[in-house]
Predict the 3D structure of the following.
Amino acid sequence: MRSDPDGAGTRGPGPAAHAAGPGPAVSPEPDTAADLAEARDVLVAGTGRTRRLDSPALRDALVDLHDFWLTTKGTELGIRPDCGFALVAVGGLGRREMLPHSDLDLILLHDDMDPAAVAAIADRLWYPLWDAHIKLDHSVRTVPQALQVAATDLTAALGMLEARHIAGDTELSNLLIGGIRRQWRTGIRGRFDELIEMTQSRWDRTGQIAHRAEPDLKSGRGGLRDVQLLNALSIAQLTDGMPGLGPDAPGGGLAAAHRRLLDVRTELHRVARRARDQLRAQDADEIGAALRIGDRFDLARVLTESARIISYSVDVGIRTAGNSLPRTGLSRLRRGPVRRPLDEGVVEHGGEVALARDARPRKDPGLIVRVAASAARTGLPISAATLTRLSDNTPELREPWPRAALDDLLVLLASGPAAVDVIEALDRTGLWGRLLPEWGAVRDLPPRDAVHTWTVDRHLVETVVQAGEATTRVGRPDLLLLGALLHDIGKGRGGDHSVVGAELVERIGSRMGLWPSDLAVLVAMVRHHLLLPNTATRRDLDDPATVASVVDTLGGDPVLLELLFALAEADSKATGPGVWGDWKASLIRELVRRCRMVMAGEELPAPDPMDPELTTLAEQGSLQVTLDPRADGRGYTVTVVAPDSPGVLSDTAGVLALHGLRVLSASIGSHAGCTVNSFVVLPLFGAPPAAGLLRQDLVRAGSGDLDLTAELDAKDRAARESMLPDRPEHAVPGTYAKAPPRLIWFDATDPGQVVLEVRAEDRVGLLCRLAGVFEQLGADVRWAKVTTLGSSVIDSFCVDFSAASTRASRERLEEALLAVLPAQEPKPLEQA
């Protein structure tokens, strides 16, 4: 019997229920639980004479402290050897992983003692802990009762697998611990599916630690619960608990990853001053500093590395356990799995890719990529034993690589999504780094730009997957795949990653045995992989100099142009949602079309003539406003024709913003002394206003009757006040702060003209404010490219501003522009 059969921090029977009976003598209750709570607080805070302990030492100290108190308290209550009572710890204390604010998970075992005596002992043990406000998850059971609970409740069974004797009758504790483990081993076949289903459900709820903005360190995929799952499978004798990832693996292996996650969660408790499993963005810098890891980006990299190691280990562990399940019934009479040849020295065995019996890894350096290619081609995982054997025995590939090794690598890269898990397995076991030593700088490297979903290394692999869909559209798919794999290899080393990457790729390509001409194309791909998207979205495609500059940069090579076009699309799609869209695709496609014409020796066509209707309107010399739905159904086109005068652009942009029309892009032109400005807009709500209303407000703004600045400030204020204080849970990656606004200068081809790119967060009427700055400083906007991506804008302006050639005038213009851009929020997390 027990005082509270299913209690978890709730009171049991009152003192009146405590009757004397058989069992150990109950001494007067000492008031020491408050001292336990105080001592725990002192250890956690490191105040007074107590020095601040690091995370591992703090956990050890907390385990020793609670063990000592519980042992002492048990002795005072008569819980001694051979008394028929035992105190057993589960949870963090049972695993010796006590965190600053962990609950106490305790089981009071008894040998079918008198219910009154059991209740008296239980209440004198639990009450002091409750009174000291120590969180307690408790139960009182006999060994048969505990075994029955474990047999019906999978969560309880997993908890009791971690049981550890604290005080009292050791034999009683051993009966429970041994019985639970025997029951687990004998019943695992019938519970394995339920275990995996429960694990998958947990992953679906919490997501992946490695790719989540604010990860759940305990329950997320790659978290501490997964390490406990591996231990449970090991106790069931289905896996060794550390499948294929020992201390020599990148990142130090599974044990080191487990320790790092424990350390982060320990500091998270200490920083939050409460039990918390989810790492919040605002705590990242403080935790990184406490663990001497670095800033939030360094912490993110450590977490990603650790979580991916654990996630890979769990995948291997579950697969190994499934293959190791004991067979029953007629299945015991079936023959074991046969070996099916896949390639030289490579076979399929038991649903996994393995080495053939006659394989000689020590004498076959190309076996690594051959195994990888076979796994990607068949969609089968590589067995953990095979990866370990390859890691321990396979020598480095000679330089240059044999052509067969390069061919096998290309087979792997061209396999689409199947390549992701194969490369991850190779990387976690150190084999991928053996093929590409330069990979270490980008492994688990977090992105600095919030638009990126993946770490840099995973982004490269995802780009390869996307590029695989374009291999039939290019004449050199091999170079496309290699360029996709290596285009960001220069990140994480300082400097321009395109320049650094090109230098690295020259060495990598030589090592792989590429022909000099092919190597030159690959180096150029990496060096210029941003050329097409940057030019198409920032420069005027109607300007012949724009196309000429791209053609000159690429040396007039149509093959390189074709590869860069496909790479730009794959790179954008692998970056994150919404990065590649119809607008961006159409601009790059048009740029590539014009470049191809020049490369083919054809004359570049002049800009398309202005629509005759607009020409007629411009020649009338009066203000005209039209609003028409776009043919593709995506938004509306607003065209404003007005006599050329200062303020037309800013007034037009302000009126559009005032009516809730979000400008997606803008085109500026002129004819017969009139400006012809065309805007692609999208209403924030409902239908757009009538064109007549827009014209009326433009007239009012031009005459001064409508104060656009005051109206837009009011709308901007209301918009900010209505914003939720917290970012949505699915934001990626929310652990990194938004960057401050940035201005980038480019020299235009015509004298007196400059191109200025503005990168910032969006705000109501931002285009109006920017245009107003140019007009106030006498800079005539010749054309503009306006791009809105989510909450960010990238706006490029080509302006006539002869004074911009001087440093002082540029600084004055920058100061004025920055004054109207949204400032960076002063949060500790956002300090670089």
Confidence is low (pLDDT under 50) at residues 1-31, 604-608, 721-739, 825-832.
